[in-house]
Amino acid sequence: MQPLVARMWPYQASVFSEMSTLAAALGAVNLGQGFPDTDGPEPLKRIAMRAIEDGSGNQYPPRHGLPELLDAACAHQRAWYGLDYEPSTEAVIGTGASELLAAAVLALVEPGDEVIVLEPWFDIYPAAVALAGARAVPVPLTRSGDRFGLDVPAIRSAITPRTRALLLNTPHNPTATVFTEAELTELATEVIDQDILVISDEVYEHLVYPPAVHLPIARLPGMRERTVTIGSGGKSFSFTGWKVGWAAGPADLIAAVRVVRQHLSYVSSGPFQPAIAAGLRFPRSYFTEFATDLHRRRELLAGGLRDLGMHVYDTEGTYFVLTDSQALGWDSGAEFVNHLAHEAGVVAIPVAPFSTGRFDSLVRWTFCKRDHVLATALDQLRRADLANHGVNRRQ
Ligand code: PMP
Ligand code: GLN
After folding, report:
1. Other beta carbons less than 10 A from residue 142's beta carbon
2. What is the pLDDT of residue 391?
3. Residues in Cβ contact with 103 at an 8 Å cutoff, skipping those fewer than 6 apart
4. For 211, how many CA atoms within 13 A lie in the half-sphere containing its CB?
């Protein structure tokens, strides 16, 4: 018998690491794991380096986060969304959004409770729910045209007396949907009626392409008091390795998250906290220019993939494009990804590991790479035979 606790058996692999390892082994272009191939803003790097050099960042920061970062995270929520949080009681800093998500679930969900997750999901959600001894209840997004949408009637049917929380993610990884005000309002009515908490993962809040608009669900009437909103410096400032995240919510929920989080990593990295604090106070122009630049790359990749005969879904937010390759004869995205890696030297992410089998033909590609890297990937794909000539070919 393996020593790993049984409830974690299903969660041993990380498809992101596996695909990055495969890309490195094959010398393939890696459009799989979502990390930029250029650094974020120089001024933020200098702040982190200075905090190491002058020693201010080299010992344990305060338990719940550096006050200047707690202030900056709350000022950011106020400036962008008109959401008011008190930094000393209604916010907490963590080691990336990942730690805060796990801490929120562990703090708010009892063993045996149910947590609704949208399917396809981000991989750490069901694992966090399992760690808490609770049960993840997947509710699939609906596909209409080139968009995946929230299915509130299905969420309603999935709710039971054991449902404690819903894990929301908007902009959504991997579908790249930004849920609309109408969708979120319908959802809000339901969770308020049923007295369910929402843990809202909004790490891609600034990676949104007009006309899509990011709306934190906490903004809707009656939602602030039942929502923990989570953000991350990794996405907004292109420093995914720094692992600085924040959560904001009403004092009672944040007090609970603080208790659990302090027993996970105790504190988060000293030198990076003042740097992310400065980033959160950047003028709006930084964020809009960042999104505009990503939008250009989105067009480059999405257009190229479409020309290759794949069905390309809309990217309203995030730095991902989702495709379906059934038209090329592939029912299995995982097999298609394997074929691409070996035949074209390009790696992407199959969506199958993030679902219960409903989305097996989908593949996710990231465009947070330099233009010439995207162009090389597309060139290599153009030169390869992408069609499935195998025995399982679709009729
Ligand atoms: N949520 C989603 C939807 C993500 O894509 C990521 C990226 N890894 C995270 C959370 C985790 O963010 P962090 O790196 O800040 O832990
Ligand atoms: N969030 C990134 C992605 O979805 C990286 C995930 C990870 O490596 N855990 O690709």
Report:
1. 13
2. 55
3. 94, 247, 257, 260, 261, 264
4. 2
Q: What is the reported pLDDT for 55?
A: 97
What is the spatial distance between Cα 298 and Cα 275, in angstroms, rounded to a whole number?
28
The residues, ordered by sequence, that sit 6+ positions from 2 with a Cβ below 8 Å of its Cβ are: 9
Ligand 2 contact via 16 beta carbon (within 6 Å): yes
pLDDT beneath 50: ranges in the chain: 395
Compute and round to an integer the Cα radius of gyration of the chain: 21
**Residue 297 tokens, joined:** 């790359």
| Spatial distance between the Cα atoms of 230 and 96, rounded to a whole number of angstroms | 9
Burial class (CB in 10 A: 0-12, 13-18, 19+), 16: middle
Q: Is 157 helix (H, G, I), strand (E, B) or coil?
A: helix
Q: Which bound ligand lies closest to the C-alpha atom of 121?
A: 1
Tell if the pTM clears 0.90, that is, is over it: yes
Give distance in angstroms: CA of 386 to centre of ligand 2. Answer: 25
Contact status, residue 385 vs residue 343, Cβ threshold 8 Å: yes
